[in-house]
Amino acid sequence: METGTFFYFLAASILLTLAPGPDILYLLTKSLASGAKSGIILAAGLVSGIVFHTFLVMIGVAAIIQNSPLAMAALKIFGAGYLLFLAFKSFTAAKRGGQISMKQSDKVNSAKKIYQRGVLMNVLNPKVLLFFLAFLPQFVNLSDESASFQIILLGITFAIQAFVIFSLIAIGAGKVRKILLQKKNLGRILNFVEAAVLAIIAVTLLIF
Q: pTM higher than 0.85 for the full model?
C-alpha cells in the first residue's frame, strides 16, 4: 500500500468518526451520565467491535451476510432488541433516582459491563458491518497477495484513531459532567436522556 493512500484513508477515517452518528451520540450521553472513565471504557468496546467487523470483511463473511436477507434481518432484530434492553435499564435506573455521584456511577456500572455493551452495540449493528464492507476495499488492491493484511491494517488504524477521538470526547464530557452534577436531580435526567438515545438508535436500526 502506498503511503499516500494510507494517509488519505486516515484523513477520511477521522472525518467519518467526527461526523455525528449513533456511536458519538451515545458515547457523549454515557460520559455525561457516568463520567469520563465509563466513556473511555465504552469507546474501547465500540472500537473492538470495529476490529471484529474488519475481520469479517477480511475472511468474506461480511459479503455473505450482506447477501442474506435473513441474516441481515436477524442482526437488525437482535441489535435493536439489545439496545431497547439497555434503554429499559437506563429508564429504570432513572426512576430509582439516577446516578447522582461519580462514586455511585462506578458502583452501578462495572468496567466489564460497559465494555461488553460497547462491543455488542457494534457487533450487532449490520450497518457498521456494511459500512466497513464498502469502505475498506476502496483503499486496497484486492488482487494483491497482501490484500487481507492490508484490510486488517486499515481496520486497526480506523479503530485506533476512533478510540483516540472517542476518548477525547469522553474526557471533555466528563469535565462538563463535574460542573453539571452540582445541579439537583441531574443524574436522573441524564439517565432518562440515555434511555431515550438508546431507544431512538434502536428504532433507527429497525427502520433504515
A: no
Cβ-contact 36, 109 below 8 angstroms: no
Which of the 8 DSSP states describes residue 138?
G
- 184 vs 90: CA distance, rounded Å: 18
Q: Which amino acid is at 199?
A: A
Grid look-up 477521538 returns 165
Q: Which residues of 143-178 are buried (b: 16+ CB within 10 A; e: fewer)?
A: eeeeebebbbbbbebbbebbbebbbebbeebbeebe
Task: Tell me how crowded residue 128 is: count the other CB atoms within 10 A of its CB.
Answer: 22
Each of the 208 residues of the chain gets a pLDDT tens digit; together they read: 678 888 999 999 999 999 888 889 899 989 988 889 999 999 999 999 999 999 998 888 877 877 888 888 888 898 888 888 888 887 887 666 554 444 444 444 588 899 999 999 999 988 888 889 888 888 888 777 788 889 999 999 999 999 999 999 999 999 888 777 766 666 677 778 878 888 888 888 777 6
